[in-house]
Amino acid sequence: SLSIVVAPAQSVYQPSAENLAARKAFQDDKFGLFIHWGVYSLLADGEWIMNQRQIPAKDYEKLPTFFNPVDFNAKEWVSMAKNAGMKYITITSKHHDGFAMYDSKVSDYDIVDRTPYKKDVLKMLADECQAQGIKLFFYHSHLDWHHPDYYPRGRTGQKTGRPESGDFEKYLTYMDTQLTELLTNYGPIAGIWFDGWWDQSSDDAGHVGKTAPANKNGIDWKLDRTYSLIHKLQPAALIGNNHHVAPFPGEDFQMFEKDLPGSKSTGFNEAQTIGQLPLETCETMNGSWGFNIKDNRYKSTKDLVHYLVKAAGHNANFLLNVGPMPNGKIQPEFVKSLAEIGQWMQKNGETIYGTRGGPVEARNWGVTTAKGNKVYVHILDWADRQLTLPALPGKVSAARLFADKSPVKITQSAEGVVLTMAAPPAADMLDTIIELDMAPATA
Ligand code: JFZ
User: Positions of the site: May be important for catalysis (predicted)?
Assistant: First the structure.
């Protein structure tokens, strides 16, 4: 008998030329501002409060009626990010609570229709980013604790008083329509940062290179459909998804939440291995994403600069989060720290922007970054004059301290490169950087 073998309908994602160029520019940018802001900010206990306190949707809906961020000033936020040395902003267009922080036409559950403020903060921010030349990404939650058609419920948000029925396909259409609005009405968007897929994830085993199939509830996120819609609307927009598993086809960068790629330090990213895509890691300035009034666990400027430098050494961007207050201001502790990081970046940004992870893998003492014929040795924690690197892929022709260009002695052998500084790194230096000139490879 005759049998016809039909190839699976899965089409392999081919990023466009614009998309590939945007990926490279994204990697060059290295540092971005993450903003978690929504009506949850009013309760000052993080962005998960609706779920944590099991607030029914109809009660949670009271929050927008007094969300009135009269002190919001897009110019201030964008200037703050720029002065910190950041090249992009990623802001919550919709978090898990389902409330849209922009003027959505497919729902009135948004800032323009439900708050006394009535203004589209994303539009103001998008215009200001455009004016000041900084890129804008939207964080958009797959998971939705408010929409009735987000059914069957996932792992979270079951007890928020919604009907025990719904049409998931309708929900997906709603989400895709909101994404269409975001990619149509706000100018060029640098990308979409998805989160909440994990609420309805399927068994991911072996998904590498394929989109995950429907889970046991019959939930299929139809990522391919959403991703191709985005790429069709704005080919240069980069898609990332905080799903903590290997990238799915259609994604353009890979995220490591609260973790340097490959370090698996938080228990979040155990299933993640580093793929071929640009990398990003995100972290909080205290311990919270959304505004949290009692979270005083501020990371020091030194810790944050170290994280940024280590991210660069791990070939990743660093997306550093603030949770603005309900009045639209960013708390002074964050503003101060960002200004200090900015001062550091002003002097040392050359060793971060446009670099890729350097030839020496991360060490206890620090990391390396590389750009053109330069290798930057970032010494973060080391008390001696001498530091030995393993053998490098080329010959070092000169070495100097980046800060004052004073020479550093080099002794090279097949074993490695010994760097000898005039004095050990000063205790108050955030990062002692040695700049290596690599000799051009000889034929
Ligand atoms: C997610 C959000 O839930 C959180 O509110 C915040 O926006 C952060 C940046 O991202 O955090 C996650 C994401 C994934 C898991 C847990 C928390 N997960 O897979 O278990």
Answer: 282
